[in-house]
Design brief:
By secondary structure, the protein is an alpha+beta fold. The protein contains 3 helices and 6 strands; from the N terminus they run αβββαβαββ.
């Protein structure tokens, strides 16, 4: 999936609105360009139900072995039923296919449900690595599936 595909518009709009509600004015959406989520170094995964995007997320290259999850979001009506976990697992599979061995991400301190998601899925906390010192950072070493 391409981030600039029209089906992704609700994800981008919803994510931007959520950042605005939780953190106020910010420029996070402009910090990563859509082409960073394109193969061969990136990927974008969406979950569609009844022709409507309900959840999605992307990954981009940090270095040869490490990628970063960005733009994780689930529509409010579909939260709590495993959509984000499905997307996260899809991103992990894509990361392995692209040759990454480690997946990292940061989430905001006002997103406890995201923290719970990552902890539940085997991510461990690490020091922040991005531009937000108040962020909560996670990492997971990926294991190839036999």
């Amino acid at each position: 999936m391409h981030l600039d595909d029209p089906i992704c518009e609700p994800l981008l709009a919803g994510l931007s609105a959520e950042y605005q509600q939780r953190y106020g004015e910010q420029d996070e959406m402009a910090m990563v360009t859509p082409d960073e989520f394109e193969p061969p170094s990136g990927a974008f995964v969406v979950l569609v139900a009844s022709g409507r995007l309900v959840s999605g997320g992307g990954l981009r290259r940090l270095d040869e072995q490490v990628c970063e999850v960005k733009r994780m979001w689930t529509d409010e009506e579909h939260r709590g039923n495993g959509c984000a976990t499905v997307v996260l697992r899809g991103l992990e599979e894509a990361a392995l296919e692209l040759g990454y061995r480690v997946i990292r991400l940061e989430t905001g301190p006002r997103q406890p449900e995201a923290v719970a998601l990552y902890e539940k899925n085997g991510y461990r906390r690490i020091p922040t690595f991005g531009r937000y010192p108040q962020a909560i950072a996670f990492e997971k070493t990926l294991a190839a599936v036999d």
